[in-house]
């Protein structure tokens, strides 16, 4: 990306008293870490305490980022999608310990009859890859995508190990939602999550909202000191370079991987990879998981505890390094550093991040048009998380 492109990096928005360090860190992201256009929102106990945006709507443009500018958030979508299964469980419509095949009989092929619903959420399903990758039109067709994962043989015995299901997570979850409710996950999220909360968040972008979404592109920037790296560079380089590795194959389940700026990609409902949101949409969603927001709370306290209880930990068969997962959410750790040990959420490849921390009442959302070579611990998001931690310090 041409660093000479002129963008307005004046920081707009407000912070509550005591959260001034977040504004300072947000400004430094533009000055030293290569951000071109971004927004960050933080709620505490259901009240917005940080609402900032700056830069350009498009990574290579000059039109200013506005309060309602949205971006593709890649795998941060997974945390929103996970709430669908958790809510269905909370409502008594879905048993997390039931076999997936109970709802989806065709899925039982190749010894998957004992694969449980919770294995989809905790990345223990053994289905991170497709032997026959899908094109974007195939991936966006619910019947074709569901048939592909149903026909896939596990690469490890389900439940015995874990590995990040980068793309297959979405098709597994979506078909479960369809079998239980008769609606796709994107439609379910729109009516049962986004509408009650007034979220600027979509899985399957409506054409009427397309004008609000900025263009994403690659940016480079120095690694700041003190940032936790997501994985050892040598091992992950080897894994991505090896066409036979689970790492390479997991991220190639859609081949070729779509341009994130392609309207067809944004319009598809891919709950593992292509949600579109504002920073406020992500933060407000997470705030509603841990407490009421304008009178609306999504998850009961017992469901929150279930969601953030450790289900998987240790060396990840796909991401190479040690990861920790609850039910649909990454948990605080070296690969996914959030605010505190009890935090849970999900990053998006390239920079976006959403999470909640029940103990402090913090809910956080960051979106950017500057796509960096990070899967989990993006340095810009981490700088903001550290600033929130500083703001909360006694």
Automatic annotation (TrEMBL):
<dbReference type="InterPro" id="IPR052907">
    <property type="entry name" value="Beta-lactamase/esterase"/>
</dbReference>
<dbReference type="InterPro" id="IPR001466">
    <property type="entry name" value="Beta-lactam-related"/>
</dbReference>
<feature type="domain" description="Beta-lactamase-related">
    <location>
        <begin position="26"/>
        <end position="384"/>
    </location>
</feature>
<dbReference type="Pfam" id="PF00144">
    <property type="entry name" value="Beta-lactamase"/>
</dbReference>
<protein>
    <submittedName>
        <fullName>CubicO group peptidase (Beta-lactamase class C family)</fullName>
    </submittedName>
</protein>
<dbReference type="InterPro" id="IPR012338">
    <property type="entry name" value="Beta-lactam/transpept-like"/>
</dbReference>
């Amino acid at each position: 990306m041409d660093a000479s492109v002129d963008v307005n990096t004046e920081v707009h928005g407000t912070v509550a008293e005591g959260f001034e360090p977040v504004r300072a860190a947000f400004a430094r992201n533009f000055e030293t870490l290569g951000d071109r256009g971004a927004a960050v929102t933080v709620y505490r106990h259901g009240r917005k305490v940080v609402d900032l945006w700056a830069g350009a709507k498009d990574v290579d443009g000059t039109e200013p980022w506005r309060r309602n500018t949205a971006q593709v958030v890649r795998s941060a979508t997974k945390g929103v999608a996970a709430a669908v299964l958790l809510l269905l469980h909370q409502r008594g419509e879905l048993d997390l310990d039931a076999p997936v095949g109970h709802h989806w009989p065709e899925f039982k092929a190749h010894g998957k009859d004992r694969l449980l619903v919770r294995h989809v959420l905790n990345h223990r399903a053994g289905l991170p890859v497709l032997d026959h990758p899908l094109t974007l039109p195939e991936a966006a067709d619910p019947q074709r995508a569901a048939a592909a994962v149903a026909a896939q043989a596990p690469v490890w015995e389900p439940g015995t190990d874990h590995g990040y299901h980068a793309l297959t997570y979405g098709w597994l979850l979506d078909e479960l939602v369809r079998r239980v409710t008769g609606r796709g996950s994107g439609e379910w999220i729109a009516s049962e999550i986004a509408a009650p909360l007034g979220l600027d968040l979509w899985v399957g972008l409506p054409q009427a909202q397309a004008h609000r979404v900025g263009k994403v592109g690659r940016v480079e920037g120095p690694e700041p000191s003190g940032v936790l790296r997501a994985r050892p560079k040598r091992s992950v380089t080897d894994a991505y370079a090896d066409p036979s590795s689970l790492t390479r194959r997991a991220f190639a389940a859609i081949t070729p991987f779509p341009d994130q700026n392609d309207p067809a990609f944004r319009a598809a409902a891919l709950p593992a990879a292509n949600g579109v949101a504002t920073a406020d949409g992500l933060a407000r969603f997470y705030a509603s998981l841990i407490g009421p927001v304008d009178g609306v709370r999504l998850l009961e306290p017992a469901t929150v505890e279930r969601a953030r209880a450790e289900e998987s930990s240790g060396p990840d068969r796909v991401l190479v390094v040690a990861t920790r997962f609850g039910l649909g959410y990454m948990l605080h750790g070296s690969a996914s550093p959030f605010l505190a040990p009890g935090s849970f959420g999900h990053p998006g490849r390239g920079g976006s991040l959403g999470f909640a921390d029940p103990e402090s009442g913090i809910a956080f959302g960051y979106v950017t048009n500057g796509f960096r070579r990070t899967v989990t611990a993006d340095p810009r998001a981490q700088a903001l998380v550290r600033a929130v931690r500083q703001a909360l310090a006694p």
